[in-house]
Amino acid sequence: MDNEFSQRFAMLRQGRGLTQQRLAEKLGVTAQAVSKYETGQSLPDVQTLKSIAAILGCTTDYLLDHELAENERVDMLARERDSQIQRELQKESITLCVGAGALVQMLMEENKNQYESIHKLRVRLAGEYGILVPVIRMMDQIGLENQQYEILLFGRTVAGSGRLEYPMHFYPEETAKTKDDIPAAEPVYQIPGVWRMKPENDEAGKEDGKKNPISCMEMITVHLEKVILENYGKILNRQLVAQMVEIVQKRYPAVVEGVVPERVSLARIQKTVAALVAGRVPVNRIDYIISFLEEHTVDTKEDFEALKAELQS
After folding, report:
1. What is the full DSSP assignment across the chain?
2. Model confidence over 222-238: pLDDT tens digits?
3. Are 308 and 281 in contact (CB under 8 A)?
4. Residue 205: left (phi > 0), alpha (psi -120 to 50), or beta?
5. Which pLDDT does position 183 carry in this prediction?
6. Beta strand pairing call for 157-163 and 169-172
7. Which residues contact residue 277 at a Cβ distance below 8 angstroms, ignoring those fewer than 6 apart?
8. Greater confidence, 6 or 264?
9. Are 150 and 103 within 8 A, CB to CB?
10. pLDDT above 70 for 186
């Protein structure tokens, strides 16, 4: 088999910080197939090869060693190494890590749906709180136990963790009915209940006093929302603030032009938005916040309370 391809493929995957399982999910193949590509036991088909090149940020010619001079090879390797260093310097704000077991299957299913649950969460937080949430990276992590997950901030701080019984659903405030039911407290708010397989014709939640069963992915999004709202002051950076201001500028140009950053700095807007979100105050009206800060040049406790009251009214 093509040893040059397998070496380059492995180097690029590792340089991108992708596990074999994670790359397999993106390609729609098995982790065993990715392993065989790297060991030279097999080669991908044409369509998969194109997908590999797109995901790893290279050309198919580079992967197949076509028409590349020695200086181009050195340049490609240098760029890959620089990219790896940059990724280490700039960790994603939020990362969802799952144990290399059943939960990986859950992420593969989400991948097929283009991570619709996470997208809906980001849209909902934008609508309810007026906040922008950065892209949430999802990956498997060998150090975690099967069915365990962690939510990391900047690749280091564990802001949330728990255990799920995928593909079961969680039934809040119910007790075990069969030997297959698993009594537990859900990991977000520690509400007691049981994990059980959800029948196709399940009627839970339709009866008085019963709550709807919660899927593992729904549990994850609830935990992500809690972590995001509790830590938004850390997650919110100047770039996100600039994006918020840009959105306002397109709709209300007079509010922003000549005001931000000339009279109201991005740093001040960032500090104010973070404090408001920490108090669960929606910040959908960034235009009003900018105008308020322009009129109140000194930040006082009284002015902040007045701003909160206006935004909550």
Report:
1. --HHHHHHHHHHHHHTT--HHHHHHHHTS-HHHHHHHHHTS----HHHHHHHHHHHTS-HHHHHT-S--HHHHHHHHHHHHHHHHHHHHS--SEEEEEESSHHHHHHHHHHHTTSHHHHHHHHHHHHHH----PPPEEEEETTSPTTEEEEEETTTEEEEEEE--TT-EEEET----STT-EEEE-TTT--EEEEEPPPTT--TTSSTT-PPPB-HHHHHHHHHHHHHHHTHHHH--HHHHHHHHHHHHHH-HHHHTTTTTTTS-HHHHHHHHHHHHHTT-----HHHHHHHHHH--S--HHHHHHHHHHHH-
2. 999 999 999 999 999 99
3. yes
4. left
5. 97
6. unpaired
7. 129, 131, 229, 232, 233, 236, 283
8. 264
9. no
10. yes
d(CA 125, CA 230): 13
Nearest one of 171, 164, 162 to 199, comparing CA atoms:
171
253 vs 244: CA distance, rounded Å: 13
Residues recorded for the chain: 313
Site of tokens 């044409």: 46
Q: What is the pTM of this model?
A: 0.71
Count of CB atoms situated within 10 Å of the CB of 181: 18
